[in-house]
Amino acid sequence: MPTPVTQMSLYTGAPSPGQITTAQASIYHTPFYHTQWTSTGLRGLLVFSTDPASGSHSFRILSGPARKVVWTHTIPRGAGMAYDRDKPFFHVFAGASRRYGFRFDDDQEADAFYRTVVESLGAPKPPTNANKKKRAFLTVRLARVPLDEKACVATSEYVGSARGR
Hints:
WH1/EVH1_dom, PH-domain like, 4 helices, PH-like_dom_sf, alpha+beta, 34% strand, disordered N terminus, single chain, WH1 domain-containing protein, disordered C terminus, 165 residues, 33% helix
């Protein structure tokens, strides 16, 4: 099996600067909280790379005989993105508006790609103490909300009468 840099050389003649690994893949997407994936129709050489100037990582799909970039997704430096292996040949991650999936042609390529991406990105950052305190505060506040029906009616009537002042 060729190494990622050798593999890129086989496809385009030379690896690009900052390139970390490559594999043949197709892109799928789905809205958050949905389970049915839809193909984007984009297929080609999936390149995972880093920008030495900014320290950010990116996924790109190169397609066609000229290997032009037809899709890109930038991962900001320090974002701590979770990259998961749903199946040996299908990897998923969350974008800003939806989840994306990569369907790989070869399970061994997919495994090597997964290990390289996870090592490069590191583990997702845990929530900060400020976020933990904020969530704890919200939990306590929500726990004090009356749950019986009479109290809810009385509260809504009170709010309605307060608005009429």
